[in-house]
């Protein structure tokens, strides 16, 4: 199978090449030329398999140039990393929660970032790469740690993560600063997330830097969610959840389901859309946003307008005004010429309007809802008290939007709500939903949440409590490139 750019570049690349390259030279995102089809027999066979087996069967449809996917999937979704079941489905109230946070960093990014680094490592071998890869990441929290865990101790790869000194939670900071592995580096920068992000982008765009890195034996690569290597493993858990619903007797094989996804960069919900394009019977997509409700407006009006205030919320991984993976949906619905024009307008005016036909196609499948801070807290409290189900702030946004969808449409199709983080990752905010404030550091909130809910603290968070920082460097934005070069030459 070959991959092409959403903006029409002529290149046709294999999966290994695409995973190495990340973004297309014309600025577009890579998509498979043709989306593979699965039928009922395929899904039926998957119903009898465990998650690793399901992952192998689905991923070999997309990464057909890989010879050892079975080994990669076994390693990526091992019991040591994810426990017995990497993506369990739990019924609570009227819906089913697909829990994607049983990995090493307790957030759903692990589902992709335990897989993609191994796929990159293999791609370097398959393409006889003379250079090693240097992964650069700017993070506002979750992605940095998940990437560090995924890439640590892999051959021919180094990873360096930048985070804003005062822009991440204490737990997130300690998670990164205590990272183990001999090919990793973590550096705080003075500034906010935008400074970290624009600093990394500047390094990627710097031709002189690339030449120096090349001399040191490296090419630069990104762990960003626009890489196809992150999207493909996300398709797996939708098909897997469908199998689990069949096995639990909740639906008959072939029956429709709806999905509701807490959305930021549009990667997770787009993976669900790919599953539908493959043949999985997903009827409606509920796109759940927090107060940064740019996608709600887009789905309702066809106008994407980022000229609006940016809010910091208790679901920070969804505090996003540019949902990069939306480009892939536009490409499938409207072709590369129009997509290129939309992205040009977004870049120049911060705004674009899709054609009425495209908007109609989106409205047939997608429903946009959003949830404010009060309703986020109320939803956490309600599910815990009524259903003994504890969820984090991001998941609560989705649970609320799923209710809104049902109330508006009276559609009672079985609903899968995607749960993207452990409640302990956002302990202080989850705790405040119960009207409790924790005094002291973030671990005080973790302990107080455990005391109040009796929910088990995930092992990676418990382990963190005794750890000390290994990386303590703080630099100015202008010195980021120098830090990377020092790391590559070390
Ligand atoms: C990244 C993230 C999201 C948003 O996922 P997208 O693929 O960017 O839409 C939601 N919840 C959590 C906890 C996340 O880390």
Keywords:
490 residues, alpha/beta
Could you walk me through the main structural features you see in this protein, from its secondary elements to its overall organization?
Helix content is 48%, strand content 15%. By secondary structure, the protein is α/β, with parallel strands linked by helices. β3 (89-92) and β4 (95-99) form a beta hairpin. 50% of the residues are buried. Bound molecules: pyridoxal-5'-phosphate.
Arrangement of strands in the largest sheet? 3-4-14-9-10-13
Largest sheet: number of strands, sense, barrel closure: 6 strands, mixed
Give the uncertain stretches in residue-range form: none
The whole-angstrom Rg is 21 Å
The coarse silhouette is: globular
- Terminal-residue CA separation: 39 Å
Total helical segments: 22
Associated small molecules: pyridoxal-5'-phosphate
Question: What value does the average pLDDT take?
Answer: 95
Count the beta strands: 15
Please state roughly what percent of the residues sit in beta strands, choosing from under 5%, 5-15%, 15-25%, 25-35%, 35-45% or over 45%: 5-15%
- Coarse structural class: alpha/beta
Helix content: 40-55%
Q: How is this fold's topology laid out?
A:
Layout: E1 3-5, H1 15-21, E2 30-32, H2 40-47, H3 51-62, H4 69-76, H5 79-82, E3 89-92, E4 95-99, H6 109-113, H7 116-126, E5 132-138, H8 142-151, E6 157-164, H9 170-177, E7 184-189, H10 193-205, H11 207-216, E8 218-222, H12 228-247, E9 257-262, H13 267-278, E10 282-289, H14 294-301, E11 303-305, H15 326-349, E12 351-353, H16 356-365, E13 366-370, H17 373-387, H18 393-409, E14 415-419, H19 427-432, H20 442-453, H21 459-464, E15 474-475, H22 480-489
Parallel strand pairs: 4-14, 5-6, 5-8, 6-7, 7-15, 9-10, 9-14, 10-13
Antiparallel strand pairs: 1-2, 3-4, 11-12
Helix pairs in contact: 1-7, 2-12, 3-4, 3-12, 11-22, 12-13, 17-18
Bound molecules: pyridoxal-5'-phosphate (PLP).
């Amino acid at each position: 199978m070959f991959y092409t750019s959403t903006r029409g570049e002529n290149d046709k690349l294999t999966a290994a090449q695409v995973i190495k390259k990340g973004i297309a030279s014309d600025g577009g995102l890579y998509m498979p030329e043709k989306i593979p089809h699965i039928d009922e027999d395929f899904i039926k066979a998957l119903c009898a398999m465990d998650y690793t087996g399901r992952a192998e069967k689905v991923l070999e449809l997309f990464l057909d140039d890989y010879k050892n996917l079975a080994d990669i999937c076994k390693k990526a979704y091992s019991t040591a990393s994810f426990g017995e079941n990497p993506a369990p489905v739990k019924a609570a109230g009227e819906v089913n929660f697909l829990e994607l946070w049983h990995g090493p960093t307790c957030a759903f990014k692990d589902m992709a970032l335990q897989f993609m680094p191994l796929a990159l490592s293999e791609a370097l071998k398959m393409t006889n790469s003379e250079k090693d890869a240097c992964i650069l990441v700017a993070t506002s929290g979750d992605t940095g740690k998940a990437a560090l865990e995924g890439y640590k101790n892999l051959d021919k790869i180094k990873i360096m993560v930048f985070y804003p000194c005062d822009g991440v939670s204490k737990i997130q900071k300690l998670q990164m600063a205590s990272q183990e592995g001999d090919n990793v580096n973590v550096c705080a920068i003075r500034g906010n997330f935008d400074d970290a992000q624009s600093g990394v982008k500047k390094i990627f765009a710097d031709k002189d830097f690339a030449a120096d890195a090349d001399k040191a034996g490296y090419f630069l690569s990104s762990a960003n969610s626009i890489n196809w290597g992150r999207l493909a493993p996300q398709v797996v858990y939708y098909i897997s959840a469908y199998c689990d619903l069949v096995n639990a007797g909740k639906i008959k094989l072939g029956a429709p389901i709806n999905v509701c996804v807490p959305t930021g960069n549009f990667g997770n919900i787009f993976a669900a859309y790919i599953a539908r394009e493959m043949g999985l019977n997903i009827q409606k997509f509920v796109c759940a946003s927090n107060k940064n409700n740019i996608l709600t407006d887009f789905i309702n009006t066809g106008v994407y307008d980022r000229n609006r205030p940016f809010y910091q919320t208790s679901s920070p991984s969804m505090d996003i005004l540019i949902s990069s993976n939306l480009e892939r949906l536009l490409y499938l619905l409207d072709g590369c010429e129009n997509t290129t024009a939309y992205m040009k307008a977004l870049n120049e005016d911060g705004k674009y309007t899709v054609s009425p036909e495209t908007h109609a196609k989106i409205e047939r499948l997608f429903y946009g809802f959003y949830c404010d801070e009060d309703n986020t807290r109320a939803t956490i409290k309600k599910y815990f008290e009524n259903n003994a189900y504890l969820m984090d702030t991001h998941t609560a946004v989705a649970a609320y939007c799923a209710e809104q969808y049902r109330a508006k449409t009276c559609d009672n199709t079985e609903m899968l709500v995607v749960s993207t983080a452990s409640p302990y990752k956002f302990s202080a905010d989850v705790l405040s939903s119960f009207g409790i404030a924790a005094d002291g550091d973030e671990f005080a909130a973790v302990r107080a949440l455990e005391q109040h809910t009796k929910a088990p603290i995930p092992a990676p968070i418990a382990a963190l409590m005794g750890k000390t920082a290994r990386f303590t460097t703080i630099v100015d934005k202008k010195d980021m490139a120098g830090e990377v070069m020092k790391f590559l030459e070390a």
